[in-house]
Specification:
By secondary structure, the protein is an alpha/beta fold. It has one domain (24-129). It contains two helices and nine strands; from the N terminus they run αβββββββββα. Strands 1, 4, 6, 8 and 9 form a five-stranded mixed sheet that branches. It has a two-stranded antiparallel sheet with strand order 2-3. A hairpin with a 5-residue loop joins strand 8 and strand 9. The termini are far apart.
């Protein structure tokens, strides 16, 4: 009887481990494009809103803006979704890909980020993705 319980527990543990995947990013390798800093992004003069409905954790949300293409030199406001098909500066140690960008986020903006498993961010991106100066 003791061996059966141990066997069942072991099988349960193996099944649980086999279901573990890296859920930190919804973006597969190659979806995000990395640009060398020696090749600067063009400035964006007008932000084109493109409302979209996107499913987040089994609920449909109405986003004011879906960011694709270059993330640098952007102004974000409202409910924003940053998808996987973005282009950012490459980095080495700290993920400071917003350095040398004209990147602003209005207060009360909520940003969902596919590369962070659709996590919602309420305080912008600067604290994690810009170097403190």
């Amino acid at each position: 009887m003791k061996n059966k319980i141990l066997l069942i527990f072991t099988l349960f543990f193996i099944v649980q481990l086999s279901g573990c995947v890296d859920a930190r990013s919804l973006c597969t390798p190659g979806m995000i494009t990395y640009r060398e800093r020696s090749n600067p992004f063009p400035s964006i003069t007008e932000n084109q809103l493109n409302p979209q409905q996107i499913e987040i954790k089994l609920k449909i949300k109405d986003f004011d803006h879906l960011v694709s293409g270059q993330l640098c030199n952007n102004h974000l406001e409202g409910l924003v979704y940053v998808g996987c098909d973005i282009e950012i500066y490459e980095w080495e140690d700290k993920s400071n890909f917003l350095d040398n960008c004209n990147f602003t986020v209005e207060s009360n903006t909520i940003i969902y980020v596919a590369a962070h498993n659709n996590t919602a961010y309420y305080k912008g991106c600067n604290s994690c993705h810009m170097t403190d100066e």
